[in-house]
Amino acid sequence: MRRAVLATCWVLLGAVSVAALTALPNVCKTSVVTESGKKYRLAANASTVHWGYFFESLKPRLVIPSGSEVTVEMITHHAGDDPDKMIKGDPGVEDIYKWGASMNIPTRGASGQGDGVHVLTGPIYVCDAEPGDVLQIQILELVPRKNPRTGKAYGSNAAAWWGYQFRTPFKTGKAREVTTIYEVVEDADGAVYALPDYQFTYGNTTAYKGPLTASCVPKSGSIPDSNVKVPWAQNNKFAPNYDIPCVNGRQQFTGYAYPGVLTQHPTGTEDYSIRGKFVVPANLHIGNIGLAPKFKPAEAVNSIPPLPTGGNMDNRRIGKGATLYLPVQVAGGLLSMGDAHIAQGDSEFDGTGIETSITGRFKVTLHKKAKLPKTLRGLNFPLLENKNEWHIHGYAYGNYLTELNPPGQVFAKGASLDKAFEGVYRNARDWLMSAWDLSEDQAISLLTVACDFNVHQVVDGNWGLGVSIPKYVFRVGDKKRYKPAVICGSSTPV
């Protein structure tokens, strides 16, 4: 009953208002949300997702107290790469991707309206969360979403123009964008794998349906660079430095313009020769999970570059068994998540992982600023913990919203492994000194002899690295032999 009342009050909220946001703390005091430890569910549909941005003024789709368990459905923004396998027959996904006669814009989706890339479910308002607090998100379970029509789950790996491979010449033929569709399978022992099904190439005339080029991007449109209120100074742009010619009132996308566009099969380029060539062990994880950042003036922020509050970290370790700690910058925290992957290697080299719709189960706990443990004091970056290690995140720009003016420069200036390495080193050094009382020289030595640095992603504008710090190193006097507690490169317990 409590969940039913909650859904009636908050799941179907529309446009934001100051009065409504001000009333949220009072809602948290009612019997609807005062009992911690309750279980909630946030289904994904056109009214519960937002395309491609974090926004402190976005109305919550769910309100929960600290200590709650919540199940969240996450829909991939690459479902359009094979609509028949990943959209058709799944009502929630169909609702997100549907088109109507009034949607006269060259973008995608019922709630997209030109906003951005990732389909993010939320936001979730956590009662009593205030700036300076830390939100703890334990990932209890991640399950691939099967299409109810077929009983199967599929994912897509798009080797697209933003991938690192486009920074160097191709060995065979000209540069090209190729998408690989994977089927998600489970063996008799319950192990999950991804099997490559087929590939296809973008750039031919049959790749996109007519409604997707119904009109041209308007001058001063709202398709965002760093936030949705930035006016465009030129026609034909849907993203910085990317012009699509407007001919007779239409734009024809000749390549992988951006995720979310529906591909019409057959494209004439389908290649099934990849079948049986290899198998990919699953490592289900969440590519984009974060809180709304505080941005002055209050504006929506692009979901592509990662932030101190999380977001598009694309870290394969953010999976089952992991606990994520995020600094709160706005009232309620406003937690959103999406961009889930069946698997991805460190770096997300070609532009994406195996992008798949996944349902997750989480426990959300609030840590108040006045009572933070030493490991969380002064936290200004996403901190990950699993059974085996602490994992520090760092980026080329720790907070590009405040370090760059305009913030949209991050897509050029943030593409730097040197800067990202400096960022993660500073975060790890400072955390070791604060949380474990090490001197700077002691921290430098420990990072060198016992810790592993990892390249999370080189495709998200603000490039990201991480460093894994084994918990065992702090068990001074423990004579038990060290044994890894998680599968290497993940948070999955051994």
TrEMBL record:
InterPro entries according to UniProt: FmdA_AmdA (IPR004304)
Protein keywords: Signal
Pfam families in the cross-refs: FmdA_AmdA (PF03069)
Provenance organism: Tetradesmus obliquus (Green alga)
PANTHER family named among the record's database cross-references: FORMAMIDASE C869.04-RELATED
Entry keyword Signal: yes
Protein name: Acetamidase
GO MF, one annotated term: hydrolase activity, acting on carbon-nitrogen (but not peptide) bonds, in linear amides
Signal peptide residues on this chain, from the entry's feature table: 1-20
Keyword Ribosomal protein: no
